[in-house]
Amino acid sequence: MSILHKAMTIAGSDTSGGAGMEADLKTFEELGVYGMTALTVIVTMDPHNNWFHNVFPIEMHVVEKQLETILEGVGIDAMKTGMLGSAALVELVAKSIDRYHLRNVVIDPVMVCKFSDEIMVPEAAEAIKRLLVQRADIITPNVLEAAYLADMPQVRTVEEIKEAAGRIKELGARYVVIKGGERMDEDAAVDILYDGKNFREMSVKKIYPSYNHGAGCTYSAAITAGLANGLAMEDAVAQAKAFITAALEHSFVLNKFTGCTNHTAYKVYLNK
């Protein structure tokens, strides 16, 4: 009987299924990893009001019980974070990483909504910067989150990404990968991986049209799955880049408001 490696996501639920823990668990499954989730919030969308998002936090003691179930009752090979809606929740995650001596820690610093450049919960963002960056085996900000973490006015070019990666590395993360995505000034979607010595540039031509709801969650989940399966960091990131590129190339319309990445695309189209 083969060993199935296990991963945990501490994240919110996207009721529409495209992002959050739904995206994480789909990605884990596609990459052969048994996934578990500690749910932090439930996000619903209003189909009568332009898909407006409502956020319903899970009580802290319930999050703690979920973590206890997973970490004491089962055990994990890797973990990732997603939406952490309060400073207290960030503190709980930091304490859990230390208490259980967790390894292969992937911090996805979810700070902004898809259609906004504003930090959603400033006190949670500050706590992520103060407590989770230093505990990250890898942190996966987009360019807006990278600018916040690096104390830079903006991150829009490859050189700015490299500068931001260096600053974030100094905060304590073992590896930093910054996702250029559609907000970059370049014609390509460029990701930069930095280990403190070398920059690895991963570039693909921007995909048009594509529907990128859930792309950030999917990317960090793919890294987590790779680490759970025993891949070296560089290989886990490279696999994740291929996974999300396929997911975007074969993304699809969900409804009149949004479209989603295709979590089956890597296996169906690239890895038959």
Write the layout of secondary structure elements.
Elements: E1 6-14, H1 20-30, E2 34-46, E3 52-57, H2 60-73, E4 78-81, H3 87-99, E5 105-107, H4 122-132, E6 138-139, H5 143-150, H6 158-170, E7 175-179, E8 188-194, E9 199-205, H7 215-228, H8 233-249, E10 252-253, E11 259-260, H9 265-270
Parallel strand pairs: 1-2, 1-4, 4-5, 5-6, 6-7
Antiparallel strand pairs: 2-3, 7-8, 8-9, 10-11
Helix pairs in contact: 1-7, 3-4, 5-6, 7-8
Keyword list:
nine-stranded mixed sheet, 11 strands, 22% strand, 9 helices, two-stranded antiparallel ribbon, 272 residues, 39% helix
Question: How would you characterize this protein structure?
Answer:
- By secondary structure, the chain is of the alpha/beta class.
- The protein contains nine helices and eleven strands.
- The protein has helices at residues 20-30, 60-73, 87-99, 122-132, 143-150, 158-170, 215-228, 233-249, 265-270; strands spanning 6-14, 34-46, 52-57, 78-81, 105-107, 138-139, 175-179, 188-194, 199-205, 252-253, 259-260.
- The strands form two sheets. Strands 3-2-1-4-5-6-7-8-9 form a nine-stranded mixed beta sheet, with helices on both faces.
- Helix 3 (87-99) runs parallel beside helix 4.
